Amino acid sequence: MEFSIKEVGNHRDDYAALLASRSACLILGMFEDEPLETVTKMIDRASAGLLSRLVKTGEASGKRDTHVLLHEVAEMGAARVLIVGLGKKGEFNERAWVDRVRYTLVSAESTHANNALWLLPVPNARDVIWSVRMAVQVARAHCYQFIARHPGLKSRAPAPKPVLSKVVFAVPVKQKKLISDALTQGVAIANGMDLTRDLANLPANICTPSYLADRARELARKYSLKIEVLEQKQMAALKMGALLAVTQGSVQPPKLIVLKYQGGPARQAPIVLVGKGITFDSGGISLKPGEGMDEMKFDMCGAASVLGTLLAAVEMKLPQNIVVVVPTCENMPSGAAVKPGDVVVSMSGQTIEVLNTDAEGRLILCDALTYVERFKPSVVIDVATLTGACVIALGNINSGLYARDDALAAELLNASKQSLDGAWRMPLDEAYQDQLKSNFADMANIGGRPAGSVTAACFLERYTRQYNWAHLDIAGTAWKSGTAKGATARPVPLLTQFLLQRG
Ligand code: BES
Ligand code: MN
Ligand code: ZN
């Protein structure tokens, strides 16, 4: 799907020119219980009052999830006009807007039009710039088809669904530069989200740590980024005992991927993004139950999301220095695997009693979080499908956000609001740290069932005292289960918005 914009003034002449523009489908909105707007009135006149008659019979109501389609209206450049119900004007909030945009895409595609000129609606309390950026993301997510992008996974390729190949947004004049920037940003974010979804959806027998490293190298080559991939030997030399403990039961070699983008002055402290890259989490010796275990191929969604975010940032040419760090390995049971009760020494020197080998995410992250001290970061954000407890606490609506620093938490929550990528701040009180006490090491790797997402964050917190840090637990938000099973690409919208806001 390709996007462009066309400026339209708000005089009758401008609207007349809009109605004369050639397209397969002109798309407009109509609110419920509101008089027709100037453009719709002009269409009514061109159609010799057809639209008014449809309003009278109730066929054109403006109600949500309804639309009317007019064909071959005299003197109009569009082969058809699609008028989509937007619902009640007062209720046209962002959620309603996203639903209407999706409904519009489905309706437009059912006409088999391959291009459209779209007078994009704007939700209450938002502007055109926001709407264009978001519409691109919603539209691209709507077209995403994993199977079509990865031939070979199904022996018979599914019939491609009809899609609009070209969409032109009709937007008001004057803000052309800002709006076309928003379009570029929307496309960059969508590209990042596609990468995230692709990596996350791939099965774990394809998407191994080595595969992730190869894809990262490909990114580096394509965008001239610096890359370093640390191998097991180098991890051993750095004394990453926690990460090495997790990988020791697997036959796949672990990798620590480090990608650097320099968009700002060389001396500017970088923003560091760390993503959990467990390409399959069986639980290890503390083996998970069989049901739904396949979904643990998604345990590298944190890694996929920081790589996607980097791609978006690079395509947007953001004026920042960004370092992405991905510790990646499998968590498998075997004769060589780490066992409950084993004590390991992390890179920081702190010792950990591994009471449950299924709490492996924090083990690979703690060494990565110590490793990133060397970049003297302005901020470090780690992203991880860390705990089932977070799914219980927040479901699949909000990611769990943890930060010591109120200003950083506020910045991220604001980015979350702007991008409609929900996050909810969770506590980090020192009192929770007691749950991590161990008789045999500096700490245990689990804190019991109460507040499981919080104690996991508290564990990470002990490794992040050298810099400003935030943690996103995306266990509930990174993918969907059931018939819609697949990656969501969250929190790429939140992270890219955070980067955009940092200027
Ligand atoms: N990757 C899982 C967390 C997870 C579970 C994410 C289910 C999404 C859905 C993580 O490695 C894990 O297994 N965590 C354990 C921790 C426990 C042993 C303290 C969990 O949440 O059960
Ligand atoms: Mn686990
Ligand atoms: Zn895990």
Using brief descriptors, characterize the structure shown.
alpha/beta; binds zinc ion; 503 residues; binds ligand BES; six-stranded mixed beta sheet; binds manganese (II) ion; nine-stranded mixed beta sheet; Leucine Aminopeptidase, subunit E, domain 1; single chain; 2 domains; Aminopeptidase; elongated; 37% helix
Topology:
Layout: E1 2-8, H1 12-20, E2 26-32, H2 38-46, H3 50-57, E3 67-71, E4 80-88, H4 94-110, E5 115-119, H5 128-143, H6 146-149, E6 166-172, H7 176-201, H8 209-223, E7 226-230, H9 232-237, H10 241-247, E8 255-262, E9 271-275, E10 277-281, H11 301-315, E11 321-331, E12 342-345, E13 351-354, H12 361-371, E14 379-384, H13 388-394, E15 399-403, H14 406-419, E16 423-425, E17 443-444, H15 452-461, E18 469-473, E19 479-480, E20 486-487, H16 492-501
Helix pairs in contact: 1-2, 4-5, 5-7, 7-11, 10-12, 11-16, 12-15, 14-16
The structure holds ligand BES, manganese (II) ion (MN) and zinc ion.
Describe, in plain words, how this protein is organized in 3D.
This protein is α/β, with parallel strands linked by helices and 503 residues long. The chain has 2 domains: 2-174, 3-Layer(aba) Sandwich (Leucine Aminopeptidase, subunit E, domain 1), CATH 3.40.220.10; 193-502, 3-Layer(aba) Sandwich (Aminopeptidase). The chain is 37% helix and 21% strand. It contains 16 helices and 20 strands. The chain has helices at residues 12-20, 38-46, 50-57, 94-110, 128-143, 146-149, 176-201, 209-223, 232-237, 241-247, 301-315, 361-371, 388-394, 406-419, 452-461, 492-501, and strands at residues 2-8, 26-32, 67-71, 80-88, 115-119, 166-172, 226-230, 255-262, 271-275, 277-281, 321-331, 342-345, 351-354, 379-384, 399-403, 423-425, 443-444, 469-473, 479-480, 486-487. The strands form 4 sheets. Strands 7, 8, 9, 10, 11, 14, 15, 16 and 18 form a 9-stranded mixed sheet that branches. Strands 1-6-5-2-4-3 form a 6-stranded mixed sheet, sandwiched between helices. α7 (176-201) runs antiparallel to α11. The longest helix has 26 residues, at 176-201. It is elongated and about 85 Å long. The model has no long low-confidence stretch (mean pLDDT 97). The structure holds ligand BES, manganese (II) ion and zinc ion (ZN). The site of ligand BES has 16 residues, from α13. Residues 281, 299, 356, 358-361, 385-389, 391, 446, 452, 475 line the site of ligand BES.
